[in-house]
């Protein structure tokens, strides 16, 4: 029986560095050694989700996060000291996490999960399922300010859905990195979709925004408080592989 690829085989970020681990839910399910019980409080939070598929993907995201963080901290996944800030953002506690100055973030959609870990700064990650153009058209005014909305409408129709997906992921990653999360107004996050990492100033935080086709067509973005882009790893049928942005 094959076992889940050892997260200890991934490099621990050095000071000022970060990494993101991405996996499709179907790939995770193919590894019998992946499943393990989460702490009771996390299982209770997951159990409140109404749909079985939502519970499964949330559990997979937290299992992947705990495996990665446990390898970084040198402890069992269930022993990783996760707490929540007043705004609900998950964070690490304890001397080991403080000594390494670790921050982490996780995201999931129906098809994929992502976990980001950074040393010396905040990190936010987002993954999103692709949506048809009519869905993006319905929500565009909630994600774009008027000027950006007009610019998006000027994008050729065949490319407009992909452009909206990239912007949405980027805005979510930024708001998760700052801790604003769902309380933040995505219209106030000014982004220009591009293939290269770009700097975003949000309050006192300067974030490097990186996005790319690592799990295409699933949308992905990472915002990290660093001058260097994250290292990206994707779970493949034979283990971890690096992915470019």
Features:
245 residues, alpha+beta, five-stranded mixed sheet, four-stranded antiparallel sheet, 7 helices, 11 strands
Folded structure, characterized:
The chain has 245 residues and is of the alpha+beta class. Helix content is 33%, strand content 25%. The chain has helices at residues 25-29, 40-47, 52-73, 95-100, 133-143, 146-153, 157-178; strands at residues 18-24, 82-84, 90-92, 102-108, 112-119, 123-128, 198-202, 205-211, 219-224, 231-236, 239-242. The strands form three sheets. The chain has a five-stranded mixed sheet. A four-stranded antiparallel sheet has the order 6-9-8-7, with helices on one face. Strands 2-3 form a two-stranded antiparallel ribbon.
Describe this structure in a few short sentences:
This protein has 245 residues and is α+β, with helices and mostly antiparallel strands. Helices cover 33% and strands 25% of the residues.
Helix content: 25-40%
What is the helix tally? 7
Give me the side-by-side strand order of the main sheet. 4-5-1-10-11
Q: How big a fraction of the residues is strand?
A: 25-35%
Low-confidence stretches: none
User: What is the chain-wise order of helices and strands?
Assistant: EHHHEEHEEEHHHEEEEE
SSE class: alpha+beta
- The count of β-strands is 11
Specify the overall morphology. Answer: globular
The largest sheet is: 5 strands, mixed
Radius of gyration, in angstroms, nearest whole number: 18 Å
């Amino acid at each position: 029986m094959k076992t889940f690829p050892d997260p200890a085989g991934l490099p621990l970020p050095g000071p000022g560095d970060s990494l993101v681990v991405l996996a499709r839910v179907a790939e995770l399910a193919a590894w019998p050694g992946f499943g393990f019980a989460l702490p009771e409080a996390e299982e209770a939070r997951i159990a409140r989700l109404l749909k079985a598929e939502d519970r499964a993907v949330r559990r997979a995201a937290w299992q992947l996060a705990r495996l990665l963080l446990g390898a970084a901290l040198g402890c069992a996944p269930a022993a990783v000291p996760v707490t929540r800030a007043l705004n609900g953002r998950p964070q690490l506690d304890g001397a080991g996490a403080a000594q390494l100055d670790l921050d982490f973030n996780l995201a999931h959609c129906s098809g994929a999960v992502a976990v980001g870990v950074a040393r010396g700064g905040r990190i936010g990650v987002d993954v999103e399922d692709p949506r048809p153009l009519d869905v993006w058209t319905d929500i565009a005014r909630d994600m774009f300010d008027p000027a950006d909305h007009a610019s998006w409408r000027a994008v050729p129709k065949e490319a407009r859905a992909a452009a909206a997906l990239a912007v949405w992921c980027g805005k979510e990653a930024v708001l998760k990195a700052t801790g604003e999360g769902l309380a933040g107004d995505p219209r106030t996050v000014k982004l220009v979709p591009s293939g290269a990492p770009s700097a975003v100033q949000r309050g006192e935080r300067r974030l490097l925004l990186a996005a790319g086709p690592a799990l295409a067509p699933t949308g992905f973005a990472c915002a990290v408080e660093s001058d260097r882009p994250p290292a990206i790893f994707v779970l493949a049928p034979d283990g971890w592989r690096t992915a470019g942005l």
